Amino acid sequence: MTDTERQTDRRLERAILDLLERRGPSATICPSDAARAVYEGDGDGWRALMEPARRAARRLVTAGEVEITQSGRPVDPAHARGPIRIRRTR
């Protein structure tokens, strides 16, 4: 992993936590919200950050900071397929 990738990973983790901090305690965000917050260009280049954003969310799950949900219910990040949401750990 390059230094740039590590910096992007940290920025994505921070973006997830910052976005959740600005919303209500039970609010959720999409990984795309973090990807858009971190992406510095125009257009849809943020899409390349979607999988890194999902990985950042999984690291935050491991750290006990957030949980990943599908259909409003917490799911094991290792088994989550398709659209996910991220919320603060309750």
UniProtKB/TrEMBL annotation:
Pfam family, one: DUF3253
Coiled-coil residue windows: none
Region (Disordered): 69-90
Record's protein name: DUF3253 domain-containing protein
Organism name: Streptomyces argenteolus
